[in-house]
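For the sake of transparency, this paper describes our internal protein records without simplification. Because each token names a local backbone shape, the row as a whole describes the fold. One such record is reproduced below, unchanged from the form in which we store it:
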Amino acid sequence: MDFVLLAFLAFAAVTVIAAVSVISVRNPVHAALFLVLTFFTVACTWLLAGAEFLGIALILVYVGAVMVLFLFVVMMLDIDVAPLREGYVRYLPVGLLVAVVMLVEMLTLIGIKSRTTPFGADPAAEAGIANSTWLARRLFTEFLLPFEVAALILTVAVIAAVMLTLRKRANTKHQNPGEQARVKAGDRFRMVQMAAEQPAVEQAPAEAEAKAEVK
């Protein structure tokens, strides 16, 4: 048993433990942190398998951007965990049964597929270049149009999600970037001239002297 196999088994064990912790812990922040650990260990296994691009993309995109955003949202929102976990024990056997059936189906499909169409040689290894270099050349030459279409679809999906969730609620403050950009210096600061008034403490001795002269 070589070092690569031992590292793969260690990463796989950590991935399984972290994935189970995501759905078993009670704190949403802890669940998000365990999901970050799951993504990171999966990326490590991909690096061991020679898929450098997938591993680095998983760390940069999901761990570095998406999960950080999820973590900030979970920490900012006041989530009531009790209603979310109602009925968890009641539906647990059905969920486990569905998960086991799906796992058996996936393993059966992988076994049949591997017997009918065995894996060929690695094209990157045959070309004598790195996996990321081979993928970049293929992506931006032969598959440039599907790549651009996928980018356009993702952009439209992000804009649509923002527009669907952007609704005004009562008793909330909203920012208007257009008004903020058009603001002038005179609107930010205004000089107000006020007449000076004598404090009441200083007027008391003068009133006492006036009363003494009258007497």
Notes: The radius of gyration is 32 Å.
